[in-house]
Amino acid sequence: MASFIYNVILIASFIFLLRKKDDTESYFPLKIIGYFLLGSFAFNLNQVSLPLGFILYLLFFRPKLNAHVKRMAAVLGVFSFIIVHWIFPFGINQWENRSIFIEHEIGSVYTMDFQDEYELIKQELNLENDFLKLGDFKADYLEDGSIEEVSWQLVRQDDNSFYLYYIQYDSGRSRYQVTKSRADTWLQYDRLTDADRFFENLDELDIKDLTKTKGSFSFYVIQSSGERVFYAEEDRTDFFVSNGEIQLLDHEQLPVEGYIVSTFAMKKMEEEKDDKGRIIHESFEGTESSNYLFDVEFGE
Description:
- By secondary structure, this protein is α+β, with helices and mostly antiparallel strands.
- The protein has 2 domains: 2-96, no CATH class; 100-298, no CATH class.
- Helix content is 32%, strand content 36%.
- It contains 7 helices and 14 strands.
- The protein has helices spanning 2-18, 28-40, 52-60, 67-96, 114-124, 195-202, 207-214; strands at 43-45, 48-50, 100-103, 133-141, 147-158, 161-170, 175-183, 193-194, 219-224, 228-231, 239-242, 245-248, 256-273, 279-298.
- A hairpin with a 2-residue loop joins strand 5 (147-158) and strand 6 (161-170).
- Helix 1 (2-18) packs antiparallel against helix 2, helix 2 packs across helix 3 and helix 2 (28-40) runs parallel beside helix 4.
- The longest helix has 30 residues, at 67-96.
- It is elongated.
- The chain starts with a helix and ends with a strand.
């Protein structure tokens, strides 16, 4: 597309400038094209395109015949440079990275099917046939199951590029917001869990039951980095998911390796109000935490 735009500007400029000729000059059409190409010549430095050709024209070229026409050719060349190398890529990047909104209402976290939510996102983003990995999952909810926030990140590899989809649910507007970006490297990609496996195992958790076990607190959190980790915590009660069943992780089985879903309650530690009784500051502390591991590999 960029080359098409460049060729259109080149042809239009060539036809326009041919009519501006004042002095008789041999090879005038070729010289016009040469000055245009000079003005549009780009030099790439650390992925930044610079108009080196136009700079060289300003420094070293002083034509005597049809000088104003050649100057216009160089200016139109640098104009095409700006369009092709700066404006067009910026517009494409803005379009590709625009926020996508998916209208959808989620009820209680206790009745939520996370696998269905994931399938909805894939369908809306046309990612059904892509292999996706997951990172930075987090869900905040109240004791009655009302969702405060749900967010996660999907990562797709395409050749040497990584496409990142940050998904966040806006409970106030009952919709998902998806922000897309691209990266040349993603160092933790190989350590991330498959998104399908993550949601498949997350749905095995009885969130209502584990919340009740923790007691009554300000709100509750489910989160996971999505990264495979080495786990050897002995001073806590943790579980692992195997073949659709949740089993107690015995300390004698440690250390293990796997993916972790952490669940904990948030206890209010401090609250500050203004003169009108409005809360202006709150601080919370995590408590009653327990971890659920899946795709576990036990040490020998």
